[in-house]
Amino acid sequence: MPTRNTIAAGLVLIITVLLMVSCPEQPERSYTITYQLDGGTNAADNPSTYTAGNAAIPLHDPSRPGHTFAGWFGDAGFTEPELTEIPAESLGNIILYAKWSANTYVVTFDPQDGTESSPTSKTVTFDAAYGVLASTTRSGYDFMGWFTETGGSGKAISDPTPVTSASDHTLFAYWTPTVYTITYRNMESGTNHAANPTIFTIESSTITFLDPSKEGYYFDGWYSEETFDTPVETLDAGSIGNIGWSGRRLYLLRKSCLRLPFTHLEIFGSQKSGRDRYKGNLV
């Protein structure tokens, strides 16, 4: 007949078995960690989950072009103390906010054969607008803007353009030749030579002015002013500038002779032998 001790031991065994069957071991509870990176890239060692009863979890710095990491915070306004780790024995899902400080860089202005830029360089802030850019001039050329590469290549940069280069960098002036005009005047119903140009630039080759034509007349020359004092045959390469507000003007003297079937013709009280000379101008 079983003793009291035997019965007690049996009851303990039965109760233990029942507890094991009815109360299986509970798994450790897991929580999420969400990182608000504001355009940055998280460090590979930063975990996305943790479990209850955890040891302290160190936090690693993320990265972001043009910025310096300024810490992890528990609120979007960065008013709470900076976090360097998730404390031991933490509970609940966690959201961490990355704080950034925009870097500053030096931009240098290369005038590309223009006058020295003013200023020659300036400090700019990543992601912020460049602000007022340098000024420069170049004789005989129109300034077309600042570019990230020479010859107008790369990206055009203006005052409101945001800084996207995450290092010190150089901007290059881009120039195109100024176009000047040549207007021919006082043709007196004559026809200009088709090869006489109406425009030129500082990069044009030397221009040799060709004779216009007028039936019954011969051409006696181009001149640089309306008084017909200085003959002009060519416009030298490298010439620049506008004379008068309508463009660069050249005045021509067109002295023409009309061959007449008589020996003498009196014009303006003077005697002309066999032909009539008259003056014209070109602007």
What do these coordinates show?
- By secondary structure, this protein is mainly beta.
- The chain has three domains: 30-102, Immunoglobulin-like, CATH 2.60.40; 104-177, Immunoglobulin-like (Sandwich); 179-283, no CATH class.
- Helix content is 7%, strand content 28%.
- It is built from one helix and 19 strands.
- It has one helix spanning 4-22, and strands at 30-36, 49-51, 57-58, 67-73, 85-86, 94-102, 104-110, 121-125, 141-147, 156-157, 169-177, 180-181, 199-200, 207-208, 222-223, 231-232, 234-235, 264-267, 270-273.
- A five-stranded mixed β-sheet has the order 8-7-11-9-10, with no helix packed on it.
- β9 and β10 form a beta hairpin.
- The protein is rod-shaped, with a radius of gyration of 44 Å.
- The model is unreliable at 243-283 (pLDDT under 50).
Largest beta-sheet characterization: 5 strands, mixed
Structural class: mainly beta
Q: Could you name the ranges where pLDDT drops below 50 across 5 or more consecutive residues?
A: 243-283
Mean pLDDT: 81
Question: Total helix count?
Answer: 1
| Overall 3D form | rod-shaped
N-to-C span: 141 Å
What series of H and E elements makes up the topology? Answer: HEEEEEEEEEEEEEEEEEEE
Number of domains: 3
Strands, total number: 19
State the strand order across the main sheet.
8-7-11-9-10
Q: How much of the sequence is in beta strands?
A: 25-35%
Radius of gyration: 44 Å
Q: Helical amount among residues, as a percent range?
A: under 10%
